[in-house]
């Protein structure tokens, strides 16, 4: 059974997570062609309630979450370093 | 890079525009398939022209449509779903109506009709469909149980698939290695035809979201989904394999010729 992650707001077509590939959202709908440069065209199904999914004609088990391909989650702790430049500061050396 | 198709009596002409200015024209002859890539940086790779191949299954469906094979009327004896129609009196077999089109009212006489493209699979009492469609090419409402339906032969191959398969053959019924991800999945083509000309074109613009290194062929199907499959009417090796990445756009145009 095919799972879906997105719904096109223009034509109602459903798209699997793989349609988005390395991006957060698909670039265009494979049915109507809409969506390019317009994130508002896409409904993320994982954000919908069971009732909203039923109105589309699917259930929670038909929904998959898109994880961007090729992006490795960060490991270890994050160190934040901030450079400060003030009037009169000098470079070392 | 945008294209405008000018249908001709024996082919078509592609007009390539960049920022509204005409860059070049390309003449396509009968049954030619052309592909090009617009890369993320704006550069263009022209993959050239090849010749499409009408499959045996496509020829059969074409014959059934032009010759008007016997229609079938029935009733949804079980509530249809978004991908399956059930009629206990169908007396069919798996895939018997593959490529045909099923029309049905949603509830009563006054609701607009919806239709579905029939696919392979199913059984003696069920038909696999791609989805319910409105006349405006949007997703239609699933008809209610006990609604009637009409099955009509329909050779409308307007869904284009891509593959890494390098050896299309007339006997093929499926597109081996069909791509289903990364913005290169089967997609609806845009149809164009000018009255009085012998050709029509089907063009699909793929907005690529992942990397593919060897897209070697395209095909035109009667169903939107690989799950329903539909009939593969045309299968064509591209003149040159396409290597694309996220942000690229792959444009494929099939100039289908009707002759008598």
What does it look like?
The complex is a heterodimer of chains A (93) and B (260). A 3-stranded antiparallel beta sheet of chain A has the order 2-1-3, with no helix packed on it. Chain A is elongated and about 65 Å long. Chain A starts with 5 loop residues before the first strand and ends in a 37-residue tail after the last helix. Chain A has 1 helix and 3 strands; from the N terminus they run βββα. The model of chain A has no long low-confidence stretch (mean pLDDT 83). Chain A has a domain at 6-62. In chain A, a hairpin with a 5-residue loop joins strand 1 (6-8) and strand 2. By secondary structure, chain A is largely without helices or strands. Chain B has 260 residues and is mostly beta strands. Chain B folds into 2 domains: 2-55 and 156-257, no CATH class; 70-152. In chain B, the strands form 5 sheets. Chain B has a 5-stranded antiparallel beta sheet with strand order 5-4-19-16-15, with no helix packed on it. In chain B, strands 6-18-17-13-14 form a 5-stranded antiparallel beta sheet. In chain B, strand 1 and strand 2 form a beta hairpin. The longest helix of chain B is centred in the first third of the chain and has 12 residues, at 56-67. Chain B is elongated and about 55 Å long. Chain B starts with a strand and ends with a strand. In chain B, 44% of the residues are buried. The A-B interface holds A 2, 10-14, 16, 18-23, 26-28, 30-33, 35-36, 57-58, 69 and B 82, 131, 137-139, 142, 180-183, 185-188, 190, 205, 207-210, 224-225, 227, 246.
